[in-house]
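A quick aside before the break. I want you to see a complete sequence-to-structure record at least once, exactly as it would be stored in a machine-readable document. Don't worry about memorizing anything.
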Amino acid sequence: MGILGGTFDPIHFGHLRTAQEVGHAMGMEKVFLIPAASPPHKSGEPVTAFRHRLAMARLGVEPSDILEVLDLEGRRAGPSYSLDTLRQLKSQFGPTADICFMLGSDAFLDIRTWKGYEKLFDYAHFVLIPRPGYDIETLRDFIFALDASMEQTGEKDIYTMPSGNRVIICKSTLIDISATNIRRLAGSGQSITFLVPEAVRNYILEKGLYRAHGKS
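That is the input. The structure line, written in tokens, reads:
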């Protein structure tokens, strides 16, 4: 299974296309999108209520054959640390569950700031999606710098951690959409058509989300 976490404020086609495309490319049975209830790296920044972000994520994945949304971080108190989420998933699906943690290369380059980041590789494979403007050679160098005992497999861009789990660079269609820009556009009354699924756009309009963002 794959998992893709994020604030999803709001979920957009960049999130959805990446999750769907990488999931199919790697033969995943399911890709779970997990909205963060209390994102630790966004402390001090205004974040839309979890119930709205969860609802939009569920609307966004409806057309997909493999995407599904889990609300487990919304049912857990405190900051939404990835380490706690991976432990919970292993407990929920069993110790033999093959979990692929999907994230953008930009987020991975900051992984040393994450809670217990060294232990993350004990619970899951990491699937890295290169982002626009990020040099892939820098990403490769960073992977090797994380652990001196990292081994490269016979396949390019697949690396094995001491835990036996792998770090995999998996390219996908680059859709450079910014949730920040979507909030700004929606707040100023401009169109967000073709940036988010129509059901998500309707939800934003119905609930009056992001109105304050147009005033900044």
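Two observations worth writing down. Residues 30 and 66 are 5 Å apart (CA to CA). The mean pLDDT is 91. We'll return to this after the break.
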